[in-house]
Design brief:
The protein is an all-beta fold and 121 residues long. It has no helices and ten strands. The N and C termini lie far apart (37 Å).
């Protein structure tokens, strides 16, 4: 299994970025995919998830600003990040282990190496 994130970078507050996660080695269309980030002192948190049927989940801090989508033909999941805030600065990880009933765990499923998002003026 391989998950490779891209699209991170430096952006000013209020700006936008689009993250991509290219997946291989498993039946992508059958898996719920998600983006997670590390919260200092609290561990990993779900940013957003998308089920195989297209249903989506968003963490409270990103609702209305981020949009997750997937392209099963390309085995890719995206995260459109708008109205970025300084507190969104983090490493964003892609995983095929999403569940809205449980928090993210690095020992469950497969994870990418992450892409750095820095929001600063």
């Amino acid at each position: 299994v391989h998950l490779v994130e891209s699209g991170g970078g430096l952006v000013q507050p209020g700006g936008s970025l689009r993250l991509s996660c290219a997946a291989s080695g498993f039946p992508f269309g059958n898996y719920a995919m998600a983006w997670a980030r590390q919260v200092p002192g609290k561990g990993l948190e779900w940013v957003s998830g998308i089920y195989s049927d297209g249903r989506t989940y968003y963490g409270d801090s990103v609702k209305g600003r981020f949009t997750i989508s997937r392209d099963n033909a390309k085995n890719t999941v995206y995260l459109q990040m708008n109205s970025l805030k300084t507190e969104d600065t983090d490493v964003y990880y892609c995983t095929n282990s999403f569940s809205s009933r449980a928090g993210p765990r690095i020992d469950v499923g497969s994870w990418g190496r992450g892409t750095q998002v820095t929001v600063a003026s």
